[in-house]
Specification:
7 helices; single chain; mainly alpha
Length: 159
Amino acid sequence: MILSLIFNDNFSSGGFYAFPNLAIAGLVYISAYLDLYPGWLTAYILFYIYGSMTPLNPAVFGFIGTLSYAVSYILWRKIPYENAATEILAAFIASSVYYLALFLVVFYCYGMHFLYWDFFLSYGFPVSVSTALFSPAVFFFFKKAGYKNFLKKHKIIYL
């Protein structure tokens, strides 16, 4: 989470942000293996912490994170197989929903008016693409770490 914020703030090239949002990539992995309520709670806590590092209300980020989790959870339950292409697709859709909801909340609820095409073309879309392309590496890392086996062993999930 912190790396995403630091790299996007310090290493953007001319207002173009492309560092992947690692929290969303992790959220997609969590949605693939956790049940609904533990995953929802994990997503809320994860994005509440993420939101506490920004100037906006952390509860807004918690809500948007749970919305992205719900979309990713539904996708994983509809897709019968797991491979890199489905990981990329789920991460792209979850990230797109996240940035669309973030835009809607900031633009309409907080009244921060800015060029919405600039937001989508220079921030939302590039970060969603990079997050999607990076998500297989996140899945590989968690699989190597044995996170899925840990969840099964402690009966946190039921497959």
